[in-house]
Amino acid sequence: MGPLTVDREFLPEQRADILAAVNLWRLATGGRFAPEVHFADVSCGQPFAIEAVPSEGCHIGHEVHDDDDDEHDEHDDERLRLRVLGAAHPHQHWISVVTWLDGAAFRDNVAHELGHYVLLGHGQGVMAQARKREPAVVAPTSISEFCAIWGCDPPDATD
After folding, report:
1. What is the Cα–Cα distance from 95 to 46, expressed in whole angstroms?
2. Strands (DSSP E) along the chain, which ranges?
3. Which residue among 54, 56, 128, 147 has its CA within the 20 to 30 Å range from the CA of 109?
4. Whole-number Å distance between alpha carbons of 124 and 139
């Protein structure tokens, strides 16, 4: 894969977290996903880039309802409400993430969207849609999916 442009609008600590999220995938994929990262101005939908979104816009920030919430029926106004914190387009190769998260929550959000960037779906670990109870790791199932898509051999379970 080619270079990845990261919006210069991210704060320095967010830039470090983005680099950490890229490194998480670099390590998990044995270096198969290791884009050179550049910082520059980025616009919504710019290919091969991560855009900083400080408020609602560029496909994120709006509220959605979790219709899979088993504790409430479809008519309950107390259904779990979620805000979209990131978006990735697998064919146009862009990512947008919110800037109002801090620390591990921000890094994990970026890592999750990077998984979609490399064409992965929701699963376990960092690719779980609701990550509150999931570890911030790239799960073996994500590596298997990555290798099925990108034509590599997954690491041996004993490695």
Report:
1. 8
2. 4-7, 37-40, 49-53, 63-65, 81-83, 86-89, 94-98
3. 147
4. 6
64 beta partners: 82
pTM metric for this prediction: 0.81
- CA distance readout (Å), 121 to 3, 42, 114, 125, 157: 22, 25, 11, 12, 21
Q: Kindly tell me the number of DSSP H helices and DSSP E strands found in the chain.
A: 3, 7
Q: What separation in angstroms does the CA of 65 have from each of 2, 73, 132?
A: 36, 12, 17
Sheet of 94-98: strand order equals 37-40, 4-7, 49-53, 94-98, 86-89
Amino acid at site 104: A
- CA–CA gap between residue 118 and residue 127 (Å, rounded): 12
Copy the structure tokens of residue 6. 């990261």
Residues 56-79 have pLDDT tens digits of: 666 665 555 454 444 444 444 444
**pLDDT at residue 3 greater than cutoff 80:** yes
Please give the C-alpha separations between residue 26 and each of 4, 46, 49, 130, in angstroms, as whole numbers. Answer: 13, 22, 17, 23
